[in-house]
Amino acid sequence: MQVLNWFFRPKDEGDARSRAKDRMRLMLIHDRLELPPDRLSSLEEELIAVVSRYFEIDRQTTRFDLQQYERKAALIANFPLLRSKS
Amino acid sequence: MSGRVIVITSGKGGVGKTTASANIGTALAQSGASVALVDMDIGLRNLDILMGLENRVVYNLVDVIEEKCKLRQALVKDKRLPNLCLLPAAQTRDKSAVNPEQMQKLCAELKTMFDFIVLDSPAGIEGGFQSAIAGAEEAVVITTPEMSAVRDADRVIGLLEAKKDAISQYRLVINRIRPNMVKTNDMMSVDDVLEILSVRLLGVVPEDEDIIVSTNRGEPIAGTDNTRAGQAYRNIAGRLRGEDVPFLDLTPKDPTWINKIVKIFTPAARV
Known about the structure:
The complex is a heterodimer.
Chain A: H1 2-8, H2 16-33, H3 39-54, E1 55-57, E2 63-69, E3 72-78, E4 81-84
Antiparallel strand pairs in A: 1-4, 2-3
Chain B: E1 4-9, H1 17-30, E2 35-39, H2 47-50, H3 61-65, H4 71-74, E3 76-77, E4 84-87, H5 100-111, E5 116-120, H6 127-134, E6 138-143, H7 147-161, E7 169-177, H8 179-183, H9 190-197, E8 201-206, H10 210-217, H11 228-240, H12 257-264
Parallel strand pairs in B: 1-5, 1-6, 2-4, 2-5, 6-7, 7-8
Antiparallel strand pairs in B: 3-4
Helix pairs in contact in B: 1-11, 5-6
């Protein structure tokens, strides 16, 4: 089994190097913005509430992340719209 | 003469600031430039040990600042390189003994005497660090590929960026890279760290046991041929002087076919 595991082990997924990189990215975005831990989730809730007043949105596929661009952060929000509200 | 004042800094302690300072200073001096190394780690002086000059220290940085001696009296000449001097830190005082204005004045004076003034900053981002960067025009940020070191380097880069008017450029040195661990995806690579920090690279120094030997001898490794770390520091000094030096190839050599076969029959390590 060991040998089989060795042959079929997933590539690059969850290895220490990519885990470190992912954790670093997120941590530094928070550090640089001096962002309190719960701030982002409360922003997400408010944004969803605002968009929901105009559209029905697909909550399952809603994406909300911070991404790094050079040494700056960008907020990327993706709200798939189902239909507008009358 | 108007020398360049370069501060070596990192945020986190123990990533190799003092070793880098000693080696960058030595390598710059070997290429013919006149160099002053200034130990800014007041109270925790170590640069004298790495240079092998601990027995020659008479006066120190704080004596100069407090005008207990002339600047020239406090400068300790290197054992081998006549164009390299050390200004040691005081061991019995603390960081508050020198303030940023005093450092600016001292650096202005050193600039008239040397081509390069290399400031070895203390760890942290408080007073001692602030004094160290006050007199500098350029910075070298040292990190290792570990998360805590990278995080602290990022904080320091943020602080240097806020001082853009005074510090015209900062570049990164990644220390203690272990190419084998990068290859097996157990450690962040040079490119990973650069991507995360978005900063210009000055050099990469591989993990090298010879560093410990050179520290014990009091002879910076930049003065020793045939060591990878020594070559890395000589390359860094070349780049600081404006030369276009290619980066060392640190990729581990491909295992021979016999090693490959041995590896297939060795269970993968799991943690």
